[in-house]
Input
Amino acid sequence: MHKHLAQSVTESDTGRLFIDGDWFPNPLPANIELADMAYPDTSYSFTTFFSEKPVGFSLGYASGNYGHSMFTTGKNGEIRVGRYVVLQCTRIISNLLVSIHDHCMFSWGSVLTDSWLTEQTQAPALRRQMLEAAAHSPNRHLEMTDPQPVVIEENVWVGFEAVILPGVTIGRGAVIGCKTIVTEDVPPYAVVVGNPGRVVRYLEPTDVEVKE
Output
């Protein structure tokens, strides 16, 4: 975990980091990585973060979590956020992997999830088994049986209350309209709207690759 953040933090005797002035005075999880100039906002965003991965969450250089986005993970969940990414009141749910590349923007109320109830998980016997397991777990988190990774490529803009469902890859430079439900892969530079989402036009690729 990095301490050169866009917020002032204090390290406890046990090495845990607290955001100074945080209204929810819990430490940040020990298994997250925050790059220089990252803005994690508040530890409240991690109240449903149960990842047991060595690094269950990473926030890249100059990326920010604003308006206390919520990061919900199961024990095998992982969330990777690249550089210069804006998360505005965004909900990310992972039981496997949600990966966001550089220069992306997410409006308030948007949701990304790699887990969903399928016909199989809605079968009465399996649903009963899953609920019983959640009831006896220390955090009452429902571990989904068939998560599918979500990938957001560079320079994507997601509108407010849009929902990105499991197994979806959104191509570079795409725009997802407000309240759109994305159920399948989106081509690069596509503009997608509706429920289910459909491509209504393509943008001119005017962005360029950034050389390191």
In short: The chain has a mean pLDDT of 90.
